[in-house]
Amino acid sequence: MATFILLTAGQADHVRGPSISTPSAALEPVERQGGAFILGVAVLTDPAHEANHSYLAALPQMDDGDPEFPPQIEPQE
Fold first, then answer.
1. In this structure, what DSSP letter does residue 21 have?
2. Rounded to an integer, what distance in angstroms lies between the CA atom of residue 39 and that of residue 57?
3. Are 6 and 57 in contact (CB under 8 A)?
4. Is residue 67 situated within a structural domain?
5. Which end of the chain is more exposed for a tag (fewer CB within 10 A), N or C?
6. Alpha-carbon distances of 57 from 2, 24, 50, 67, 77, rounded to whole Å
7. Structural domain tally of the chain?
8. Over the range 8-38, which residues count as b (16 or more CB within 10 Å of their CB) and which as e?
9. Which residues lie closer than 8 Å to 49 by C-beta, 6 or more apart?
10. Residue 18 belongs to what domain range?
11. Is 14 a member of any domain?
12. Residue 71 to residues 8, 36, 50: CA-CA distances in angstroms?
């Protein structure tokens, strides 16, 4: 099981994009059902995203095995 940071759409927009210190690294929160977005907690120790560490660390975290974890968006047919 993995742990993820949970973000709203606005929070995802706030952190989305290339790193200030490492332009080849970028944060791309993944959209889930219900308007939730997720990022793996590994970004909290990645030096490329140090500018966002304190902001992201203050957000809720959840294990992907938790029954409340937001499910994937079903593909449109």
1. S
2. 11
3. no
4. no
5. C
6. 16, 22, 11, 22, 37
7. 1
8. eeebbeebeeebeeeeeeebebebbeeebbb
9. 19, 25, 27, 43, 56
10. 9-22+44-60
11. yes
12. 15, 9, 28
Which among 20, 37, 36 has a CA at the least distance from the CA of 28?
37
User: pTM of the prediction?
Assistant: 0.93
Both structure tokens of 26: 């970028």
Rounded to whole angstroms, the Cα distance separating 66 from 75 reads 22
Write out pLDDT tens, residues 25-72.
999 999 999 999 999 999 999 999 999 999 999 999 999 999 999 999
41: left (phi over 0), alpha (psi -120 to 50) or beta: alpha
Distances (CA, A) of 64 to 7, 20, 53, 61: 14, 29, 21, 10
